[in-house]
Q: What sequence folds into this?
């Protein structure tokens, strides 16, 4: 019997706050989702929250911290033999406070190792995989706040966010000839969560709002900018399923049932 296999979309860091929102927005838009994250309570909570969603599959591979980790992920993806047309990367370590000048230099080095280099490792291996697809594919990073100005008490986060923004610009240029559109959704305010809701400002977006705007980048037809600022006006429920609007080539396959 022949069947149609829709391309799936990969979410790195799916167990994090923003990753959770991206997964929800993709499912809301009708896309099959492969959620990748470290095995633990957050991924378990993701599975429980979307337990009724047949389009969601979880892959608990641990963190991507190196080329070896990223290469292993790609090897596992190739075994699935399923088209991959987009990747969302929401990778970040827990936020730590404190004046940068009060920290040893190794503190900033460690934060760059944790918050910027994993993005490079992931992109180095996933962008070539996306390039094997027909048509334009997408690699979208989610960036945190205060990349353009110092964040008092969190200066290291401003530095790593600025580095990640420049990495996006470089990847955008280098991936264009491959037919892969690399962009960053820059979220310039903290994300409102149940834990911080009591002290959150009115303009702080929710995780699902961030996810909806990120997903909307898949259907934009205008000239792509490397860095796109979060806009609440783009954080709307999609009016129709994503696969009705996103021109994915559908692959047929045979099964012996």
A:
């Amino acid at each position: 019997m022949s069947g149609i296999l829709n391309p799936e979309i990969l979410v790195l860091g799916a167990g994090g706050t923003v990753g959770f929102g991206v997964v929800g927005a993709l499912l809301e838009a009708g896309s099959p989702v492969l959620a990748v994250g470290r095995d633990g309570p957050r991924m378990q909570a993701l599975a429980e929250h979307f337990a009724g969603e047949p389009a969601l599959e979880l892959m608990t591979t641990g963190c991507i911290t190196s080329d070896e980790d990223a290469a292993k992920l790609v090897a596992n993806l190739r075994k699935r033999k399923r088209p991959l047309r987009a990747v969302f990367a929401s990778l970040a370590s827990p936020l730590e406070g404190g004046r940068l000048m009060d920290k040893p230099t190794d503190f900033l080095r460690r934060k760059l190792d944790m918050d910027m280099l994993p993005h490079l490792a992931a992109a180095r291996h996933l962008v070539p995989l996306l390039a094997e697809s027909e048509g334009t594919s997408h690699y979208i990073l989610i960036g945190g706040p205060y990349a353009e100005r110092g964040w008092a008490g969190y200066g290291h986060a401003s530095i790593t966010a600025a580095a990640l923004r420049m990495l996006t610009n470089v990847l955008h240029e280098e991936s264009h000839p491959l037919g892969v559109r690399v962009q960053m959704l820059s979220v310039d305010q903290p994300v409102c969560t149940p834990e911080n809701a009591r002290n959150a400002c009115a303009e702080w977006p929710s995780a699902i709002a961030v996810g909806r705007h990120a997903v909307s980048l898949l259907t934009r037809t205008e000239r792509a900018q490397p860095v796109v600022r979060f806009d609440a006006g783009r954080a709307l429920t999609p009016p129709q399923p994503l696969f009705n609007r996103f021109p994915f080539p559908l692959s047929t396959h045979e099964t012996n049932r």
The CA atoms of residues 1 and 256 lie 6 Å apart. Residues 2-254 form a domain with the Rossmann fold fold (CATH 3.40.50.720).
